Structures are given as structure tokens and as C-alpha cells.
Amino acid sequence: MSERIPVMRPWFGPEEAEAAAEAVRSGWVAQGPRVAAFERAFAERLGVADAVAVSSCTTALHLTLIAAGVGPGDHVVVPSLSFIATANAVRYVGAAPVFADVDPATGNLTAATVDAARTPATRAVILVDQGGVPADLDAVRALCDPLGIVVIEDAACAAGSTLRGRPAGAGAAFAAYSFHPRKLLTCGEGGMVTVDRPEVGARLRRLREHGMSVSAADRDAADRGGAAPMLETYDELGFNYRMTDVQAAIGLVQLGRLDAMVARRRELADRYRRLLAGVPGLRLVGDPVDADGTAYGTTNYQACWLLLGPEFPERRDDMLARLSAAGISARRGIMAAHLEPAYADTPHAPLPATETLTRESLILPLFHEMTESQQDRVVVEFYAAAGVAADPAEVGA
Ligand SMILES: *Cc1c(COP(=O)(O)O)cnc(C)c1O
Predict the structure, then answer these.
(1) Cα separations in angstroms, 285 against 70, 103, 306
(2) How would residue 300 be classed by pLDDT, with cut points 50, 70 and 90?
(3) In this structure, what is the dihedral angle of CA atoms 112, 132, 104, 110, given to the nearest 10 degrees?
(4) 295 forms bridges with which residues in the sheet?
(5) Each residue's pLDDT tens digit, 220-240
(6) pLDDT-derived band of residue 14, with 50, 70 and 90 as boundaries?
(7) Which of 1, 180, 237, 296 has its CB surrounded by the most CB atoms within 10 Å?
């Protein structure tokens, strides 16, 4: 029996282990100099004013909503077609999520679907780059900016993706990233907020650390320098959403691998597209294109997301079961929050594209160290599960 093929596996080398060990040996393991270095490196890589590290993308979204002034009585437009954390964050601040439908080609909100869902109480939109496919932030901002609606980008999946030549998230007032092991770049758990104004970054740093006016790291630096002790004040309700220096040490190494990760994923995704071309009714979601077919962004293929059209011969859930029995960990496509019991009481307009996409899609294994022979095995089993005869000359070519 050959080894099970996972849907995702982090790519770590000895450098990550050494960086984590070095943080431990230094004696500074909580938020400190390595978090600050990771933030600077991330902000530089994205070309943004500031980056603030936090404990996850979920807590990143929570803090951005607070910083955007969203609270009880406000509506926030979100896609239902997203990991549930996107909608949950809206409820953390006492606001109401309003589900908007998505573009069936990309799985993302568009200016038109946001416009259809907004109400007089809409204060913000959370635009998700689903599966790493960049949403059209420019078009959504062209709608929202004149209306005073803040656009927050949930770029949890989109480190290494681009929109019109810029890193995904770099054009937003706030963008939130995840470093969970299901994402490209990981440090176990962790998140980052990027912002376009330094003063917003300073507020986010206070909010993530109990609302303290002076960080523990700054107080320690003052003590070591022999300066007068710095006395902190607590000016607003804060949280403990800190990242540790052990995580940041790993994150810094991973950031240096990002280009290689994206390049390898794009290569493997193109190979999947070629090898699966013989399956009727199948589409692998790739770079977003405008009306004349020109790509306006690039995806990092965070997810190898397949849409099963009407001509596809099998039911999605049967495909998942057969692939699993063959030792291949595939996953259902992106979830839809409005279909979950936690959102049963949330009213919403019809969401036809969302419901089709969540029902008729699945995610295939794709990870940096995946070999071509592992990928061939997935392809062979996929043809078998779909009951389609494969052209053996194609596989392994
Ligand atoms: C993974 C994910 C999150 C949550 O990220 P965590 O770091 O696990 O909190 C939020 N939004 C989207 C779109 C995601 O894919």
C-alpha cells in the first residue's frame, strides 16, 4: 500500500528548526525583537506603510474591524463562500454580517455583488482572496470609497499572489494574512495585518497587547538602557493577540521561501491542468481574467480548487470518498457560512453562485515537496474515481 498523499504539507528545512532553537536559546520567546523583524520584512516585501503581527488571521480581522470603527448596528458585507472566520470576526465586534454572492469564475466578491448586498448601515466590506485568487480590490474600492465604506482584504490565503502587478493586499487600507499550516507560509499559528497608514499600525500594536501604551519589549529595552522606567497606561479595551518570537523566527525564514513556494505551486497547478484536461466538465480555478481574457492578477494556488461543471460524470461527495479510499486526501471545496447552523438566523438574499460553487467543487493535494509521481498517482486515481478512461501517454509525460 503506497503512502497516503496529504492535501497540504508545510515546507520546512533545517533553517526553520535552527531559527526556532535560536529564539529559545536567546531566552526571549514572547513577542520581542524577532516579531519586530518579521513585521519589517513583511511590510518591505509588500511595499506597505506598516505590518503588525498577531496570533492568527482571525484575530487580525477582529482588530482591523475595531480599527475601522465597526461596531453594533453596523452591517459588514462578506462572502458566505469563505472559511467561517471571515463572518465570525464581524460578529465579534457586535456588527451584522451581510452575505453577498460571488463571481462563479473566481469565487470572489465583485463590485456588482457588493453593490447588490449593501444597505444604508453598511460600514465595511471584507473582500476575500479565495484560495489565493486575488479579488478585484480596485473595482470594489471604486464603488466603496465614495460611499465611505471601508474595504478590508481577507488575504489569509494570498501571500505571494498579485493584483495588477502589486502584492495582493498591498492596495487595501487593511489586509489580514494567515500563517496557519494550511496556508503557503506558516509558523504554526499566526497572522499579520498590513495597513496603509503608520498611525493605524501603532494603534493595532496597542490593541493586540491589552491596550497597553508601552509594549513589554519597549519597557525591557528602556530598563536595559538604564533609562527611567516607562510607565504604561491602558487607554482602551485591548486583547492578548500577540505572536511569539519563536513563531516570528520561523516566519522570517518562511518569508524568504515565498517566491520559491509560489513558483512550485504554479508549476504543479499547470501540470494538473494539463493532465486533467481529458476529464469533461472540469475547471481548475486559476488567474483571474477580465472581459477580454487578459489576466489582471496571479494566484499563488493556495488551493488547487476544481469546479465540477454539469458535464462532470460523478457526484462530488462520491469523488471525495473514492479518492480517500485510494489514499488521497482531497477536500470539499470552499465552505458556505450561510449553510452552517451557526448562521441559521442570519437573513440573506439568494446566493446561487455560492451554493453551486460550494456543492460542485473540490480541492486536490498540492504542496511544495509533492513529486511528479505523487501527482501522477492523484491524476490516475482522479480519472478512475470519475469513471473516465485516462490517456496513459499523458500521465508522466
Ligand atoms: C484560513 C482562513 C482564515 C483564518 O485564518 P487563521 O489564521 O486560522 O485564523 C480566515 N479567512 C480565510 C479566507 C481563510 O482561508
Answers:
(1) 33, 12, 6
(2) very high
(3) 0
(4) 289
(5) 888 888 888 888 899 999 999
(6) very high
(7) 180
C-alpha 255/C-alpha 271 separation (Å) is 25
User: What Cα–Cα distance (Å) separates residue 301 from each residue in 137, 326, 328?
Assistant: 18, 24, 19
Q: Which residues are catalytic?
A: 183
Taking the centre of ligand 1 as the mean of its atom positions, its distance from the CA of residue 11, in whole angstroms, is: 19
Q: 229 CA distance to ligand 1 centroid (A)?
A: 39
Task: Give all strands (DSSP E) within 277-397, no chain letters.
Answer: 282-284, 297-298, 304-308, 331-332, 361-364
C-beta of residue 15 within 8 angstroms of C-beta of residue 253? yes
Q: For the residues 149-159, what does the mean pLDDT come to?
A: 98
- The yes-or-no verdict on residue 396 having pLDDT over 80 is no
CA neighbours within 13 Å on the CB side: how many for 16? Answer: 16
290 phi, psi to nearest 5 deg? -85, -175
The predicted pLDDT at position 391 comes to 72
Q: Band of the pLDDT at 356, cuts 50, 70, 90?
A: very high
Cα–Cα distance list, 186 to 56, 59, 352 (Å):
11, 16, 34
